[in-house]
Amino acid sequence: MSTRSEPVRRAPQSRTQTGPGPAASDVATRAVAGFRSRYAGKPAGCWAAPGRVNLIGEHTDYNDGYVLPFALPLRTVVAAAPRGDEGWTVWSELADDPVEFGPSAVDEPGKVTGWAAYVAGVVWALRDAGHTVPGARLAIASDVPLGSGLSSSAALEAAVLTALADLGGLDLPAQKQPRLAQRAENAYVGAPTGIMDQSAAIRCRAGHALFLDCRDESVEHIPFDLDAAGLAVLVVDSRASHRHADGEYASRRAACERAAAALGVPALRDVPVAGLDAALGRLPDDETLRRVRHVVTENQRVLDTVELLRTGQVREIGPLLTASHVSMRDDFEITVPEIDTAVEAALGAGALGARMTGGGFGGCVLALVDADRADRVADTVRAAYAACGFTAPGTVTVLPAPGATRLT
Ligand code: ADP
Ligand code: MG
């Protein structure tokens, strides 16, 4: 055992699952079995946190705008027990050996590397916020695919945070937890992320989407009862490699900041859709104009989606999802052929709306579908992929699931 963790294997990615049913308990069973086989004795409990997809609101977060994620029935489960001393042992089914670290590894960021850094980062963030974190043994199993944009990292952080907070009896209100999990990832692991992933993993509710204002970090639970409407969301893992994603992300972000400065506003969120034409006329070139048009209209699409969902008009959000995709494809220019193929195939097979979700250049597509049509839409997407010679996509049919919770 050491503080250097081995690379992790990717979780299996092709499955069809319709809710937090048997597969969710399977993952808990695996975490408990892993705990029992690695460590002597039984876990004191099991804690779970979900992956997420963003229903709508892309590249709006760093523009102080709105996002609307919901939690997936795919979860990361931590089986844990106190260790009785100030040290932590972590094992994941996706890695070979457990990783062990003591307090000196979490007195500053960066000492634990690899996948276990996400766990050490949570311990560090909690201690840095003044909490006494109990030493513990942790065994981790997950159904969230890694690196597909469904936020396995936040699911891991949230599950570990919830487990340690419970084991230690820490006074940690839910609204403070996303920031701590985000610090673990930003400051300890060194991966820059906004607050959306951790907010979703911790605060989402079943049958709801989480309306998050990225300026003040306020959240509202918006009814998104797909089941009652006879609907489901098909999530397609594009399996497209994230070519140049980091550089392209940085350049989009810089363009938005320059545009806000040129328009004399703190962030593009402050450009209302009613003032869009006037604002566009003051921008220096066509590319900047299209970038701004995406962000401003995308924020409005989030607000429009929220308004429809508040009044139970779930089917009616379909065109907003598709309009979001068109805007990402043509104005923000962040889609790739695999993604556009999946969206077009889903719409052609009768999806009510479809869009890329996540930062772009790969990742996932989501499609709003009649539940009884989900398999047909998935088959059509797979056939369109095969016709283009793309690596087969992963597909999963989901309903909005709960955020982080104690299972046993
Ligand atoms: P995403 O969050 O989109 O899945 P990231 O690159 O942000 O992708 O996070 C993936 C990383 O998080 C993995 O490479 C691994 O280090 C860590 N991770 C997530 N889930 C697990 C897990 N169940 N076991 C071990 N490591 C995990
Ligand atoms: Mg992540």
In words, what does this structure look like?
The protein is of the alpha+beta class and 408 residues long. The longest helix is centred in the last third of the chain and has 25 residues. About 3% of the residues have low confidence. Helices cover 38% and strands 19% of the residues. Strands 5-4-6-3-1-13 form a six-stranded mixed β-sheet, with helices on both faces. The chain has a four-stranded antiparallel β-sheet with strand order 10-11-9-12. It has two domains: 205 residues, 2-Layer Sandwich (Ribosomal Protein S5, domain 2); 168 residues, 2-Layer Sandwich (Alpha-Beta Plaits). The chain binds adenosine-5'-diphosphate and magnesium ion. The site of magnesium ion has 4 residues, from α3.
Summarize this, please?
The protein has about 400 residues and is α+β, with helices and mostly antiparallel strands. The protein is built from eleven helices and 13 strands. The structure holds adenosine-5'-diphosphate (ADP) and magnesium ion.
